[in-house]
Amino acid sequence: MLKAYFQNKLVEAGCDEAGRGCLAGPVFAAAVILPKKFKHPLLNDSKQLTEADRYLLRPIIEEKAIAFAVASVDHEEIDRINILKASFKAMHLAIDQLAVRPELLLIDGNRFSPYFGILHHCVVQGDGIFASIAAASILAKTYRDDFMLNLHNEYPQYDWASNKGYATPSHKNHLRAHGMSPYHRKTFNWNKTETEFALGEG
Question: Are the C-beta atoms of residues 102 and 33 closer than 8 Å to each other?
């Protein structure tokens, strides 16, 4: 069972991103403020859910959340500032859009660029611990998947409908066969694993 909150006095927003380990497309981030009593039996880290369950949960999260927002940073800016900074920027942009200002940010991971005027707490694998981070992970993932599905219609040769731009062996094979699309991240080394992409800077 996920924890409802880190503490019970401040307004908390969970923050997470999707797409750090990709070869193509933007990185998306979401920020979600949930009611303290929010519960759902399926709610979990988005990576532990089926695609159908993620899309089932998204409208529930959006309806029940006190506030939520989703933002992205495109592939060109990722190349300019690196994927880690781009992930933090996407989170900041999502926080900017929240209709309710949080007093504490729960960040999935071990690093974050402080958001001016709001405390933050980093939680390694927090999307499997706190409900608000799990909710943010689901929104970021599904919104990014929608974006990549639209791109697939424009560039079907990369099979983004299946790999969503991640560094899968088949995606790398399509890159070798067709070269880079305008949406590929030019600074990324294709030989890295998905985990190395997510932890590093491209």
Answer: yes
The tally of domains found in the chain comes to 1
- State the residue for tokens 């402080």: 114
* Enclosing domain of residue 114: 12-199
* Residue 7 in domain: no
Per-residue pLDDT tens digits for 110-144: 999 999 999 999 999 999 999 999 999 999 999 99
Global model pTM greater than 0.90: yes
* CATH number of the domain bearing residue 108: 3.30.420.10
C-beta atoms surrounding 96 within 10 Å: 11
Pair type for strands 12-18 and 119-123: unpaired
